[in-house]
Specification:
The chain is mainly α. It has a single domain, classed as Rhopdopsin 7-helix transmembrane proteins, CATH 1.20.1070. The radius of gyration is 18 Å and the shape is globular.
C-alpha cells in the first residue's frame, strides 16, 4: 500500500492551525482584542477542514469517493474560518457595513458552490506518496479563486501595514506570509495535475503553516512592546 505522505503533512498542518487557534483564543481571553478572536476562529475552521480531507486519506486510502465527499464537506469549516479573516480586512479599511455582512455572504456563496460540487465529487489518487485530488474544472478554478480572494488581501494587508515596534513587525510579517503561502499553495493543490507541481504545491502550503510555528515559538524572544497589532 502506498503511504500518503502528503496527507500526513496536511494532518500536521491542520494540527498547527488548531494549535494557533487555541493560542489566539487564550490571548483573546486575556486581552479581549477582536482580532485575536477573529483569527482564532480562522485557525479552528482551517484545521477542521484539513482534517476532513487528510484523515480519510490516511485511514481509508482506497475509499476515494469517501475522501472526495468529505473534502467537499470540509469546505464549510474552511470558508467559515476564512470569512472571519476577511472581516479583519474590512475592519482595518473601516468598511464596517461590509464587515457586518461579509461572513454570511461568503457562507451563502460557499454553500451554493458545495451543493453544485457534489455533481462532480473529486476522486483523489495517491501517486508516489502524494495525493492528487483530481478536482474537475470549473470547481478547481472556483475554489482557487475563492481562496485567493480571501487569503491574498489578508496577507498583503498584514505585510503592508506600518507598525513601530519590533515585536509587531515580526508578528505581522510572519502572519501575512502564512496567509500568502498557505493560500497560494492550497489553491495550487486543487489545480495541479502533475506529480512535481503538486509536490511543490504542498511544500508552499506547508511553508505557510511553518510561518505560524515560527511566529508563536519565537514571539517571546522578540524584544519590544507590542502596541501596533491586536495579537
Amino acid at each position: 500500500m502506498t503511504i500518503p505522505y502528503s496527507a500526513y503533512l496536511d494532518f500536521i498542518n491542520a494540527s498547527v492551525a488548531m494549535w494557533a487557534g487555541f493560542r489566539l483564543l487564550k490571548r483573546y481571553r486575556k486581552t479581549g482584542h477582536i482580532y485575536t478572536a477573529i483569527f482564532a476562529q480562522t485557525g479552528f475552521g482551517v484545521a477542521i477542514s484539513i482534517y476532513f480531507s487528510s484523515v480519510p486519506m490516511i485511514l481509508f486510502p482506497n475509499q476515494n469517493y469517501l475522501a472526495g465527499a468529505l473534502y467537499i464537506v470540509g469546505l464549510f469549516p474552511l470558508f467559515w474560518g476564512l470569512s472571519q479573516a476577511l472581516r479583519f480586512v474590512f475592519i482595518r479599511l473601516n468598511y464596517l457595513a461590509v464587515e457586518k455582512i461579509i461572513h454570511p455572504v461568503v457562507l451563502a456563496v460557499v454553500s451554493f458552490f458545495a451543493f453544485l460540487h457534489f455533481i462532480a465529487v473529486p476522486y483523489p489518487e495517491i501517486i508516489n506518496g502524494v495525493v492528487i485530488w483530481n478536482i474537475e474544472w470549473p470547481f478547481n478554478m472556483i475554489f482557487a479563486t475563492l481562496i485567493g480572494v480571501i487569503t491574498l488581501p489578508v496577507g498583503i494587508l498584514f505585510i503592508s501595514t506600518t507598525v513601530e515596534s519590533k515585536k509587531a513587525l515580526f508578528n505581522k510579517i510572519l502572519f501575512g506570509l502564512s496567509f500568502l503561502l498557505a493560500g497560494v499553495g492550497g489553491a495550487m493543490v486543487t489545480m495541479a495535475e502533475s506529480g512535481s507541481l503538486i509536490t511543490w504545491s504542498y511544500i508552499i502550503e506547508s511553508l505557510g503553516f511553518l510561518m505560524l510555528v515560527i511566529m508563536f515559538t519565537l514571539d517571546p524572544l522578540v524584544t519590544g512592546e507590542q502596541k501596533d497589532t491586536k495579537f
